[in-house]
Amino acid sequence: MSADLNSIRQDWDGQLPSFAWPGGYPLYYLDSRNKSMCVKCARSADMNPEMEVVDLPVVCGINWENAFLFCDAPFAADDCTDRIESAYADDCYDRTCEGSDCVHADQHGCAERDQS
Prior knowledge:
This protein has one domain (5-112). Strands 2-1-3 form a three-stranded antiparallel beta sheet. It has helices at 5-11, 39-47, 105-108, and strands spanning 27-31, 36-37, 57-62. Mean pLDDT is 76; it is low at 108-116. It is of the alpha+beta class. The protein is 17% helix and 11% strand. The chain is globular, with a radius of gyration of 15 Å. 17% of the residues are buried.
């Protein structure tokens, strides 16, 4: 899950990448409180010298199959809740579903997801 962000920045001209290379798998970032961040918010935090240290991205990983991974960056001015793309999960999702009450459960397995 972890990757040295300094070496990644060097490989990508100082920016945090949105995809792993080789492979092109979608990346997500975590801050020191384990809040997930989309690439847009991770880049925004990374480039902001006034950002609180706890809000900076500290690790990145590939989102292999989590269709319900959303940006949870607490500092995002536009209250970002973007879905973080996954490599292999079904792209059909509904963030408002309630597990077994989801009308789409047969399409994307909401009934099996963690409701925390």
